[in-house]
């Protein structure tokens, strides 16, 4: 069997859901389980409603809910035709009545807890899965709606609940496998689950991919397909470099390094349950389904190029902490990191010398306060408008001379910090922000002119 996950944009309206149905039809031989996100933007809107109600603004909450109801009715009406829609109308209506009831309750109490937030947020996927299952059936697929809250069991850490993998696997095998055996197409909402006692939970924003991996892992899928609206992961940002190409195949570790530096297609951490079971994950384009997309697996094929991709992350500030006599003193690093912790600022790149530490952080308002705090420990300087460049590839592990080639290409560029080693598969350095486009283009030209057709298109 396989898992096919359709993200918010891939089910955003009746046209998108129709496209998804056609894609699923083409894969029936492989016994798909379909996992869907809420219609695009719906989770955001539900959270706005919940907060409005929480602040006592019942009117705003209910009027937003009305707009949401209209959108779902319109989408379902377009997909189902009159006769089917008349029957289905009351199913959807019951959900919206319950949602409104919930919003009134929240507004009456004037308090929004994480547990109640999950109750509201879950409606996105409850509704989308119901509409998608009905639409698939109307279009000749043997679809069956499966309530994810009966299969995906989690702890009670509301809004970012962790799945209980063993119990979830058992439930999936009991509820979903018989449907597959009977030739049916199970349709489930992503993102949502329930505690053992049946209280609705959600597993974190963007959790649809995570749900797909949990389902795939529990059912021992051959592959997991993440259907989005781009052709896959690219060698670099095509907006910066027109020569960027699709990556056909990438290792999990490489994909994880890229995600960290802002490649937004999919956060590999969310598909870890699949990777741990050696299940490959494909990122595919629902608007261009014949494109092979990007395959993420425990091991990818070795490319002949040094790197798989180059990522850039802008809006970086460098913080230099210099303490000629203190640096090597026991506990000094800890004191520095405790200051970052107190200000809730997370660090990307760290380089150290005998007498100083440089750290990069995303530019934000808490930096002056953080710097003032650090100044109690040492001399502190900070400088914004920097960017991190990150070159990623398994080949970096064993090939000598790569750093010399990279910095040889950039001999006229001012390099501020260099870091290599932690993962052995990335070479990271910091430059001035305005240099990003030309640096990316030059590196891409130097290292990707000889693209390997096995790994790149
Ligand atoms: N609908 C959820 C969200 O927007 C989960 C997802 O789309 O992956 O966060
Ligand atoms: Mg998403």
Topology:
Elements: E1 2-6, H1 14-25, E2 32-36, H2 42-54, H3 58-109, H4 114-121, H5 123-138, E3 143-146, H6 165-175, H7 177-181, E4 185-189, E5 192-194, E6 200-202, H8 208-219, E7 223-228, E8 249-251, H9 252-260, H10 272-276, E9 281-285, E10 294-297, E11 309-322, H11 332-342, E12 347-352, E13 356-362, H12 367-374, E14 379-392, H13 402-409, E15 417-420, E16 426-432, H14 436-448
Parallel strand pairs: 1-2, 1-7, 2-4, 3-4, 7-9, 8-10
Antiparallel strand pairs: 5-6, 9-10, 11-13, 11-14, 12-13, 14-16, 15-16
The structure holds aspartic acid and magnesium ion.
The site of aspartic acid has 12 residues, from loops.
Structural commentary:
The protein is of the alpha/beta class. 40% of the residues lie in helices and 21% in strands. The protein has 14 helices and 16 strands. The strands form 3 sheets. An 8-stranded mixed sheet has the order 3-4-2-1-7-9-10-8, with helices on both faces. It has a 6-stranded antiparallel sheet with strand order 12-13-11-14-16-15. A two-stranded antiparallel sheet has the order 5-6. Strand 15 and strand 16 form a beta hairpin. Helix 1 crosses helix 3, helix 3 crosses helix 5 and helix 6 packs across helix 8. The protein starts with a strand and ends in a 9-residue tail after the last helix. The model has no long low-confidence stretch (mean pLDDT 93). The site of aspartic acid has 12 residues, from loops.
């Amino acid at each position: 069997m396989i898992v096919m996950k359709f993200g918010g944009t891939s089910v955003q309206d009746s046209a998108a859901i129709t496209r998804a149905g056609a894609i699923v039809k083409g894969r029936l031989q492989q016994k798909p389980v379909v996992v869907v996100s809420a219609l695009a933007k719906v989770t955001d809107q539900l959270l706005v409603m919940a907060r409005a109600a929480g602040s006592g603004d019942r009117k705003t909450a209910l009027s937003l809910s009305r707009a949401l109801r209209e959108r779902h009715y319109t989408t379902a009406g377009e997909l189902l035709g009159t006769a089917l829609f008349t029957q289905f109308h009351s199913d959807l209506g019951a959900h919206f009545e319950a949602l409104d009831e919930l919003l009134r309750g929240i507004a009456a109490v004037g308090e929004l807890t994480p547990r109640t937030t999950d109750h509201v947020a879950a409606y996105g996927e409850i509704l989308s899965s119901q509409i998608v299952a009905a639409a698939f059936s109307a279009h000749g697929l043997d679809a069956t709606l499966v309530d994810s809250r009966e299969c995906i069991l989690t702890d009670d850490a509301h809004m970012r609940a962790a799945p209980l993998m063993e119990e979830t696997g058992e439930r999936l095998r009991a509820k979903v496998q018989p449907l597959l055996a009977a030739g049916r197409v199970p349709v489930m909402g992503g993102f949502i689950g329930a505690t053992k006692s049946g209280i609705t939970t959600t597993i974190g924003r963007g959790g649809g991919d995570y749900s797909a991996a949990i389902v795939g892992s529990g059912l021992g899928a051959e592959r997991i397909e993440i259907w989005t609206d781009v052709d896959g992961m690219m060698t670099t940002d095509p907006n910066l470099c027109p020569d960027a190409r699709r990556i056909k195949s990438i290792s999990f570790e490489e994909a994880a390094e890229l995600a960290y530096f802002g490649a937004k297609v999919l956060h590999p951490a969310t598909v870890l349950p699949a990777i741990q079971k050696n299940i490959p994950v494909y990122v595919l384009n629902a608007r261009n389904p014949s494109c092979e997309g990007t395959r993420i697996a425990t091991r990818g094929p070795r490319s002949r190029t040094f790197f798989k991709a180059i990522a850039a992350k802008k809006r970086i500030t460098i913080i230099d902490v210099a303490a000629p006599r203190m640096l090597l003193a026991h506990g000094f690093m800890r004191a520095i990191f405790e200051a970052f912790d107190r200000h809730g600022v997370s660090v990307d790149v760290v380089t150290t010398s005998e007498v100083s530490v440089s750290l990069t952080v995303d530019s934000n308002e808490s930096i002056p306060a953080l710097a003032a705090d650090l100044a109690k420990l040492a001399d502190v300087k900070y400088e914004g408008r920097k960017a991190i460049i990150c070159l990623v590839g398994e080949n970096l592990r064993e090939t000598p001379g790569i750093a010399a080639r990279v910095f040889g290409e950039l001999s006229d560029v001012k390099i501020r910090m260099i870091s290599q080693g932690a993962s052995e598969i990335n070479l990271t350095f910091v430059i001035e922000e305005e240099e990003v486009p030309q640096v990316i283009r030059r590196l891409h030209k130097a290292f990707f002119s000889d693209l390997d057709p096995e790994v790149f298109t």
